[in-house]
Amino acid sequence: EGNFLGFFAVDCRTFYSLAFRMVLAREETPSEQALKGLNHNVVRILTQFWNDASSAITLDTHGHCSRAQNMVTRARHVQEAKRVWADMIARIRPFTHQAYLKFFCFHPMYVAKTMERYECIIVDEAQDIPPCFLQFLYNIAYNGMCVFLVGDPSQQIYNFAGTASAFGTAPPFIEERVTIVDYFLTQSFRF
Fold first, then answer.
1. pLDDT per position as a tens digit, 51-61
2. Phi, psi at residue 54, to the nearest 5°?
């Protein structure tokens, strides 16, 4: 935190540190060990859910992540993934890094806390945003918060990890409520 040209305080955070600060208690530590012993198909379903913009684990949306051929087995994997997620939310099982980010992005209390704490959020490298965080940004922008996205869609390098580009088309509920302006750099000072 500090003074930015004497005008206002600036709090520089990553997506994860913003979520970590609000979701986890000081003594909590995210742990990938929370997934130890789970069926690999259940882990695939959870990983897909944590990375996408959906608000719930469903057979229709996440069942394909289970590589089981039998639909009954896929449904059982989805149910197990839902149970693990519920255990994390109830703090029975520790959050993983992806899980606390997802929880932060979809819990109305954290949307409200973020809007109370900050006047504006500036996101750099917006071409590589986890889809759940992009949905979070849409939600706070829809509710009137200033969101400023900076990035270059030609430099998206984390597609393999399931990131989304914030550039392109915004959902209709955003386009009808938020002013979207594109600015283009015409000169590079890099070289």
1. 888 889 999 98
2. -80, 155
User: Which residues have CB under 8 Å from 121's CB, separation 6+?
Assistant: 114, 137, 140, 145, 146, 147, 148
Confidence at residue 86, expressed as pLDDT on a 0 to 100 scale: 96
Q: Are 50 and 112 in contact (CB under 8 A)?
A: no
Query: What DSSP string describes the chain?
Result: -EEETTTEEE----HHHHHHHHHS-TT----GGGGTTS-HHHHHHHHHHHHSS-SS--HHHHGGGS--SSHHHHHHHHHHHHHHHHHHHTTSS---HHHHHHHHHH-HHHHHHHHHH-SEEEESSTTSB-HHHHHHHHHHHHTT-EEEE---GGG---GGGT-B-SSSPPPHHHHTTS-------------
Taken as a whole, the chain contains a residue count of: 191
Question: Which residue shows structure tokens 């520790």?
Answer: 94
